[in-house]
Automatic annotation (TrEMBL), chain A:
This is Electron transfer flavoprotein small subunit. InterPro entries: ETF_a/b_N (IPR014730), ETF_b (IPR012255), ETF_beta_N (IPR033948), Rossmann-like_a/b/a_fold (IPR014729). Coiled coil: none annotated. It comes from the Bacteria. It holds the Pfam family ETF. It comes from Pseudoflavonifractor gallinarum. Residues 23-218 form the Electron transfer flavoprotein alpha/beta-subunit N-terminal domain.
Length: 263, 329
């Protein structure tokens, strides 16, 4: 099976991001760029599928050339080859624009390889903007089906059967190939690279494709304009209770809840 | 903002087994604000196999219900639903299209945007009008940074966060109009073959007045029962953090936070919860926060009105006993 995994480099989501004091500028100083967590789940699911049915995984990202690091990380944990799609004219592309760029890149890679991708994986959302738009929009650009929020996938005679998480449980959804899927957190964690796989990834070339390499792609102008960047009003920390015994602390807290007429 | 000939506001009513989901009804409130600007109607769009219950629920809250019914529109068949949404957008030329920020709401609006070349906002937590232009507030980085955003394409497309807006007051029931939409066979690319219900309990965190949440610090499923006991005593609902759910102590229907429910009860009691951003961003709208944690520096104390530093397994039983005693008096 020919598999493509689309990924995005985002600021480390284990770090609390704030604004530089007194400005509208997001402070990303010292925050490590990482592969979006949901994209790592997508890659792990893709890798398990590849291990089960055979095939090859290509990882791609649209971003600055330094997004190569994100692709390299993926090469050490399951991806067989990787590309960065980078061009100055792509810099202010919004999600819809990026879906068009990715679609053009996919067509280019398919033409070069002489075979189509069967399955295209994306994370359900990126941890920075959490819009969840890219997968469905990429499917629209490619004219394929899309199944969102997967927690598992298997190959069938006719294509794939996906386990889609719902609020009450799950659905089994089938699709012919090609198909775009977006991945939620599965029951398993992404694997870690080994020293050997890291060394191998370091040696692999990660080509950069620019607008000139792609066939007539027009990401269009962003249609959403940010007019203000700010932080939510902070809650004030109240009182801390740390009495001799747990019982005394509990009674004091219950007194306060009662005084606030909450019981 | 120049609305051209676009006036009406279309709100997608998401249904589960024929029951309309709450956030769709909440979306009728920002829709009303927008209709005030454009001079149009608030139209609720129900798409399903049987829309009777959803239409009845929405009719008193809007100016008209559009009902698209058919065998193709089963739960989970987003391919058919996006056809219906697109057809209604083409027919009514709305000034805005709103939906709840659910997986389905996000997917349908994303696909509508792709088909019609539109911009959109997701997970809007507020709507202001500035000089006749709608300004949406959306969260970034798990909610530590907010952006105010304006869109320059029509219709304006937005998904709204659950709990961010309250449902409108009920008025007289608006008319329900049946709309026929043909779904071309080649538009259906995916097929739901099975729907499994693993979680049968109904957990209404969004409308709860009291929530008692347990985190990793509860330590075990046995201990987690204390969280349930306190919630029951206070007539509240049990909440949980992601680690507690991953441990299997409680079902994910109870999850509070970025990837769970956004809540705003009058009283929120966090037991053995450290206070990770992903969790805190889902509960900062609470009226009064009580936190119990043995780590004096736990970030949950930064957002707590009352922070009890201590062993949750000693504090919780004492708290339950004390509240029970006072209730008996």
């Amino acid at each position: 099976m020919e598999i493509l995994v689309c990924l995005k480099q985002v600021p480390d989501d284990s770090v609390e991001i704030h604004l530089k004091p007194g400005t509208e500028e997001v402070n990303l100083d010292g925050v490590t760029p990482v592969v979006n967590a949901f994209d790592t789940y997508a890659l792990e699911m893709a890798t398990r599928l590849k291990e089960a049915v055979g095939g090859s995984i290509t990882a791609i990202t649209v971003g600055p050339e330094k997004a190569r690091d994100a692709v390299k990380t993926c090469l050490a944990v399951g991806a067989n080859q990787g590309y960065v799609i980078s061009d100055p004219t792509f810099e202010d592309a919004d999600t819809l624009g990026r879906s068009k760029i990715l679609a053009a890149a996919i067509r280019k890679l398919e033409a070069d390889a002489g075979k189509p991708f069967d399955l295209i994986f994306c994370g359900r959302e990126a941890t920075d903007r959490a819009s969840g738009q890219l997968g469905p929009q990429l499917a629209e650009a490619l004219g394929t089906g899309v199944i969102v929020d997967l927690v598992d996938i298997e190959q069938t005679d006719a294509g794939i059967c996906a386990k889609q998480e719902t609020e009450e449980g799950y659905r089994k959804v089938e699709s012919a190939l090609p198909c775009v899927v977006t991945v939620n957190k599965p029951a398993y964690d992404p694997r870690y690279p080994t020293i050997k796989s890291k060394m191998a990834a370091r040696k692999m070339a990660i080509p950069v494709l620019s607008a000139a390499d792609l066939d007539s792609v027009e990401p269009g102008k962003p249609t959403a304009h940010v007019v203000k960047v700010f932080e939510p009003a902070k809650r004030q920390a109240g009182v801390k209770i740390n009495e001799e015994t747990a019982a005394e602390s509990a009674i004091k807290a219950v007194d306060m809840m009662a005084a606030a007429k909450l019981l | 903002m120049d609305w051209g000939n676009c006036k009406d506001i279309l709100v997608f009513l998401e249904q589960k087994e024929g029951k309309v989901v709450n956030v769709s009804l909440e979306a009728l409130t920002p829709a009303r604000t927008l209709a005030g600007l454009t001079g149009g109607k608030v139209l609720a769009l129900a798409v399903g196999t049987d829309n009777a219950a959803a239409a009845e629920k929405a009719a008193p809250l809007c100016d008209g219900v559009l009902s698209v019914e058919g065998a193709a529109f089963i739960d989970g068949c987003s391919d058919a639903m996006v056809c219906a949404l697109e057809a209604m957008v083409n027919k009514y030329a709305p000034a805005a299209v709103l939906a709840g920020n659910t997986p389905l709401g996000r997917e349908l609006t994303a696909r509508l945007d792709a088909r019609k070349g539109l911009g959109s906002v997701q997970d809007a937590t507020a709507l202001k009008i500035d000089n006749g232009t709608p300004v949406w507030t959306v969260p970034l980085y798990g909610g530590t940074v907010l952006n105010d955003v304006v869109l320059d394409t029509l219709p304006v497309v937005a998904t709204v966060r659950s709990g961010a807006f309250s449902k409108p007051e009920a008025g007289e029931a608006a008319p329900v109009t049946a709309e026929a939409v043909e779904v071309p066979a080649d538009a259906i690319k995916t097929k739901v073959v099975e729907a499994v219900k693993e979680i049968s309990e109904s957990v209404n965190l969004e409308e709860a007045k009291v929530i008692v949440t347990g985190g990793r610090g509860m330590g075990s499923q046995e201990n987690f029962a204390l969280v349930e006991e306190l919630a029951q005593l206070l007539g509240g609902v049990v909440g949980a953090t992601r680690p507690a759910i991953e441990e299997g102590w409680v079902s994910r229907a109870h999850q509070v936070g970025q990837s769970g429910k956004i809540v705003s009860p009058a009283l929120y009691i966090a037991c053995g919860v450290s206070g990770a951003t992903q969790h805190v961003s889902g509960m900062t709208g609470s009226g009064y926060v009580v936190a119990i944690n043995k780590d004096e520096d736990a970030p949950i104390f930064d957002v707590a009105d009352v922070g009890i530093v201590g062993d949750v397994m000693k504090v919780l039983p004492a708290m339950i006993e004390e509240i029970r005693k006072r209730k008996a008096e």
